[in-house]
Write a structure and sequence with these properties.
Elements (H helix, E strand, L loop, with lengths): L2 E5 L3 H12 L3 E5 L3 H10 L8 E4 L10 E4 L5 H14 L5 E4 L6 H4 L9 E6 L8 E6 L5 H13 L3 E5 L8 H17 L5 H16 L4 H8 L1 H11 L11 H8 L18 H23 L6
Parallel strand pairs: 1-2, 1-4, 2-3, 4-5, 5-6, 7-8
Antiparallel strand pairs: 6-7
Length: 298
C-alpha cells in the first residue's frame, strides 16, 4: 500500500498524515471545509516537497489503498460518512476508523463491502506512542487485517489485533479497569491520588513498561498469583457506573488538562507545561523501548 487517505484535520488526523508523508507514502488529507484544512496545515510540519496534499473532495480519495477516518466521535456521523465513502472509492480500498471505542459492527452497518472495513486505533500523541490497535468487525477478512498490520509495522508502529468487536477494544478495557480500582482506593481513603499515581509510575507501571501483565505473572510465579487471586479478586472494585470522584469532576466541568483542572491543578499555564513534560517523557520512553527491542538479538 502506497496511497494513503486521511479523513479529519484535527490533531490525530493531521499527525497521522504527517507520519505517513514522512515515511514517503503518497498521502491525501481530507477536511470538510477549507477552514478545517487550514487547521490541519497549522499542525503539520513537513518539507515543501513532502508527498502530502489537501482536499475537501472525497472523490480525490478514490484511488487510495487505505483511508483512515478520524472525524468527530459520533456514531451517526461516522455511519453516514462511511456509507458515502464506500460508494465512491474502489472496491478494494481498505476503510479504517480511528474510533477509540465505538462498535465496528455499528459503524459499518451501511458500508458497501464490510469485509474491507476495520478499526485502526491510534493513541495520542500518535507520533510518540507506538501502539496501534487493529479491530475486526464480524465480517472483516483476514487479508485486510494482514495488510493493515504490515502497514503499521512499516511506519514504526507496534500493532495488535482485537479479533472481536468488544466495547473499548483491548487498551481501553485495561485502562478503565485500572482507573476504576484506583478511584475506589482513593474514595475509600486507602491512599491519596498522588500516592496511587506513584505506585503506578514507580512500581506497576515501571514493570509494565518492560513486560506485559502475563509476562509479569510468569516472572512472579503463577502459584503465587493464583493464591493471591483466591482472596483478592472478591474484594476488587466492580462498579458498573461512573464513580463519585469522576462524576463530581465531570459535573463541575473539570475535565483535566483541557479545562485547567482535573484530579490535579493545571491552571495558570501549568497545563501547557504538563503537556511539554508528558511529550518529553514519552519520547524518552520510546527511545528506551526501541533500544530494548534489540536485547537478545545481538
Amino acid at each position: 500500500m502506497m496511497k494513503i487517505g486521511i479523513c479529519g484535520t484535527g490533531l490525530m488526523g493531521a499527525t497521522m498524515a504527517q507520519i505517513f508523508a514522512e515515511k514517503g507514502y503518497e498521502t491525501c488529507i481530507w477536511g470538510r471545509t477549507e477552514a478545517s484544512l487550514e487547521r490541519g496545515r497549522k499542525i503539520i510540519t513537513l518539507e515543501a516537497d513532502a508527498p502530502l496534499r489537501f482536499t475537501t473532495q472525497l472523490e480525490d480519495l478514490k484511488q487510495c489503498d487505505i483511508i483512515i477516518e478520524s472525524i468527530v466521535e459520533d456514531l451517526s456521523v461516522k455511519q453516514d460518512f462511511f456509507e458515502r465513502l464506500s460508494e465512491i472509492v474502489d472496491s478494494e480500498t481498505i476503510l479504517a476508523t480511528n474510533t477509540s471505542g465505538l462498535s465496528m459492527n455499528r459503524i459499518c452497518e451501511r458500508v458497501k463491502g464490510k469485509e474491507r472495513f476495520l478499526g485502526m486505533h491510534w493513541f495520542n500523541p500518535s507520533n510518540l506512542i507506538p501502539l496501534t490497535e487493529i479491530i475486526c468487525n464480524e465480517k472483516t477478512e483476514q487479508r485486510y487485517v494482514d495488510a493493515v498490520y504490515e502497514l503499521a509495522k512499516a511506519i514504526g508502529k507496534k500493532p495488535v489485533i482485537c479479533r472481536q468487536d468488544v466495547p473499548g477494544f483491548i487498551a481501553n478495557r485495561i485502562q478503565f479497569a485500572v482507573l476504576r480500582e484506583c478511584m475506589d482506593i482513593v474514595e475509600k481513603g486507602t491512599a491519596t491520588v498522588e500516592d496511587v499515581d506513584a505506585v503506578m509510575k514507580y512500581g506497576i507501571g515501571f514493570r509494565y513498561a518492560a513486560y506485559g501483565p502475563f509476562e509479569v505473572a510468569d516472572f512472579g510465579g503463577l502459584d503465587t498469583f493464583y493464591h493471591i487471586s483466591e482472596y483478592l479478586n472478591q474484594d476488587l472494585c466492580d462498579a458498573k457506573e461512573p464513580q463519585k470522584m469522576m462524576k463530581d469532576l465531570y459535573i463541575q466541568g473539570n475535565y483535566g488538562v483541557k479545562s485547567g483542572r482535573g484530579f490535579y491543578d493545571y491552571s495558570a499555564g501549568k497545563g501547557e507545561e504538563a503537556v511539554k513534560i508528558r511529550n518529553k517523557k514519552f519520547k524518552d520512553m520510546k527511545e528506551c523501548l526501541d533500544k530494548w527491542e534489540t536485547y537478545g538479538k545481538e
